[in-house]
Design goal:
Layout: E1 31-33, E2 36-42, H1 46-55, E3 60-66, E4 69-76, E5 79-85, E6 88-89, H2 91-98, E7 102-108, H3 122-138, H4 141-153, E8 157-163, E9 169-173, H5 184-200, E10 210-214, E11 217-223, E12 229-235, H6 241-255
Antiparallel strand pairs: 1-2, 2-7, 3-4, 3-7, 4-5, 5-6, 8-9, 8-12, 10-11, 11-12
Length: 256
């Protein structure tokens, strides 16, 4: 398999508690360390990674981190016994991890869980997780349809993405394979700081959108209801910004 840039992190997985704490194909490179494995992964390979640990009868905590988010799955002699991801626990936490696009992982072979939240076999968990992903792919919903319409209307589009209030990717469209899916949490924080700066200048009006120019590309950020965020990236020379704003406004009205 081809190598990918490794992003190591040495933080131990959180202690297990009873409370909560379009997938692109990719490769994974494993490097063995005294406490286990660490590396970067495209998460469509997460089921394969889980199978490696179950078949090898591994012990420990597999932690997946994506930006500020993290989730952990605990194994006991290859059996998946406990999982946490945000407020989700057990199988639901694993299903949520399977929906992520990319991330970094590590295995702490010394970690143990005194809590058992997964009672079914790991095979059943993965089968149900894959079934849910298949169902979601078959029914893209109004968000995907709206992004498709926007992509067809704009000239010079690099990508358009819709994020929820926590920065989780809802839908993405990119004719050039330009990935916006991993920047959701940072995007929300940047827009929050932008809005604070405008208020500090004495502005009382609501910030409707903002443009960021990065040399050869322009990014438009448009907040929506329920804390969602629309992010459009276009080519700086090919796109007409007035048309971009008008098209985005139309999609914003459609999405609500």
């Amino acid at each position: 398999m081809s190598a990918r840039t490794l992003d190591f992190f040495d933080q131990a997985p959180p202690e297990p508690t009873a409370g909560g704490f379009k997938h692109a194909a990719g490769d994974v490179e494993l490097i063995q360390r005294p406490e286990g494995f660490s590396g970067a992964i495209s998460l469509p390979l997460l089921p394969d990674l889980i199978q490696i640990y179950t078949v090898s009868l591994a012990n420990g905590a597999l932690t997946i981190r994506r930006g500020a988010e993290r989730g952990t799955i605990w194994f006991d002699h290859g059996e998946m016994v406990h999982a946490i991801c945000g407020e989700e626990i057990g199988e639901e936490a694993v299903y949520r991890l399977l929906q992520w696009h990319n991330g970094q992982f590590s295995l702490d072979a010394n970690a143990r869980s005194e809590i058992r939240s997964i009672e079914v076999s790991w095979q059943n968990v993965l089968m149900e997780g894959c079934r849910r992903l298949d169902e979601a792919a078959k029914d893209p919903g109004p968000a995907t349809h709206a992004l498709d319409a926007l992509a067809n209307e704009l000239t010079g589009l690099r990508a358009v993405a819709l994020f929820d209030a926590e920065g989780e990717l809802i839908a993405q469209k990119s004719p050039l394979g330009f990935n916006l899916g991993d920047i959701g949490p940072a995007l929300l924080e940047m827009f929050r700081l932008h809005a604070e700066a405008m208020r500090a200048l004495g502005g009382r009006s609501v910030v409707l959108d903002c443009f960021w120019t990065l040399g050869d590309q322009v990014h438009l950020i448009r907040p929506l209801r329920q804390g969602r965020m629309l992010h459009v990236a276009v080519d700086a020379t090919a796109a007409q910004l007035a048309l971009v704003r008008r098209a985005v406004e139309k999609v914003a009205e459609e999405l609500g």
